[in-house]
Amino acid sequence: MLFKSRFHLVLCVLVSGAYGVDPRQCNKIDSCSCKFADNGAVVNLRPLAKSNGASLFKDIYAKDGYYYSYNPCVPFDEEECHSASMCKRLSTNSSVSLVADQNNVNFGPNENGVQLTYLPSGLGNIVTVSFKCVQNSKPLFIPYGFDNVTKQYNFEVETMCACDNACYTAPETGGISTGSILLIIFFVMIFLYLTIGAINGKINGQSSGLQVLPHYEFWVGFPGLVKDGCLFAVRCACCSTGVTSYDKV
């Protein structure tokens, strides 16, 4: 019986571990952004990328003896290296070769940030770029280059865009503007004024036809009052001596 209980306990632990969710797993939204599973924060790297065909970092020397150029999110061209995410050359005057492209990019958790993994389209090596959350104004590219042990490329970028929601702006959800709300309220009040006033006049039997409308006599004479007021204002502005005040009632 004791053995059976322990077996069930071990089985439950294994099952819960297999189906558990990595608290810092960052689920990919697109090739430039991901969303953390634990708090819903978004890491958006798009503000870092150059979109003019050039790379964000160009010919940065690495420990493996090569110079690397890198641009996240958006492909770039550098001499014979086309539609690239990363290129390399042996010297500043040598030919350029492709290291990684944007065709297959995965996001993963990383200590204090996220990690982008570029999988090769054909024969090639995996490229990992760790984006570290650092509150600085200018991104820093740290190229480690090719690792002969793991047979993959490793790099690091220090940037504030790797911090939760630092470079992310939530899309506008739309909705009714303040002006639209005021117009709706205005027309609703007009409708209620006319409807309630007409019902009240009809019930009291004081009038019929259009005369059931509230303050009917005032609204009928209102255009004439506006006209008289405008004429009076114009005459005063023109310094007319014929009219200096309203007629006495």
Major sheet: 5 strands, mixed
Element order: H for helix, E for strand: HEEEEEEEEEEEEEEHH
Beta-strand fraction estimate: 25-35%
Task: Describe the strand arrangement of the main beta sheet, using strand numbers.
Answer: 10-11-12-14-13
User: Fraction of residues in helices?
Assistant: 25-40%
Shape: elongated
Q: Which CATH class of the largest domain?
A: Mainly Beta
The CATH superfamily title of the largest domain: Mannose-6-phosphate receptor binding domain
User: From the coordinates shown, what is the CATH architecture of the largest domain?
Assistant: Distorted Sandwich
Mean pLDDT: 80
Counted up, domains total: 2
**CATH topology (level 3) name of the largest domain:** Cation-dependent Mannose-6-phosphate Receptor, Chain A
Distance between the termini: 109 Å
Spans of at least 5 consecutive residues whose pLDDT stays below 50 are: 1-21
Please give the radius of gyration in angstroms. 37 Å
Question: Could you give the count of β-strands?
Answer: 14
